Amino acid sequence: MQDAVDLYLDLMKKVLANTIYEDPPIPASWAPAKEYDELNRRLGVDWPSVAHTMIGIRRLENVENCMATVLKDDIPGDFIETGVWRGGTCIFMRAVLKAYGIEDRRVWVADSFQGMPPTHSSAHDGDRRLGTDRYNELLAIDLPTVRQNFERYGLLDGQVEFLPGWFRETLPSAPIDHLSVLRLDSDLYESTMETLVHLYPKLSPGGFVIIDDYHVPVCREAVHDWRAEFGVTDPIEDIDGLGAFWRRGG
Fold it and tell me: Which keywords does this Swiss-Prot/TrEMBL entry list (predicted)?
């Protein structure tokens, strides 16, 4: 049985990151490559033109390991990613639940579905300097497209919940009771802070926080400012030189 689970999830990672058909990346200022490179895709440092996730194989493996741990240890709660792009990581989360036959937990898909917020109006100087909203032509993946991507894998069902809108508007009142994995992929200081403030209290002891953009200075600053303010001292662990995570203590 475990062999079948491992085979299915390994295939899902390869398809979601598209290491099978090796789609060329979209050149960007932070990722100028124009040709597919296996190492870049494994580390999630290119911008795929077709693949449903840009986080790469290593960070998908981290998601799998965190989810398998909380399921094995019976840590209560659902799973969420804040900032989903084409939906690939959340699709993988739903695939993990499917593979393990889990029917009493949900995957929450939180995104504006209209790209990054206008950083010129941000209260944080670092967000304004980052200016990620200039990439919204490529980052803004609408909700129908993300739903369709779930359908392509046969994974759109009642265990998938969507939270469309800006985090400051949706997260404070999100109808989530408990979380066991909280994954942030939101780049900016304000969105990182908003997510941690509103969702970390719902994370069960023994659950995991995953920060995809920990290498981005404003994101890392928000994480450390929040941890200092709320006295969180659980050790932060590196994933791949870009993302990081920690496990919530008791």
Answer: Methyltransferase, Transferase
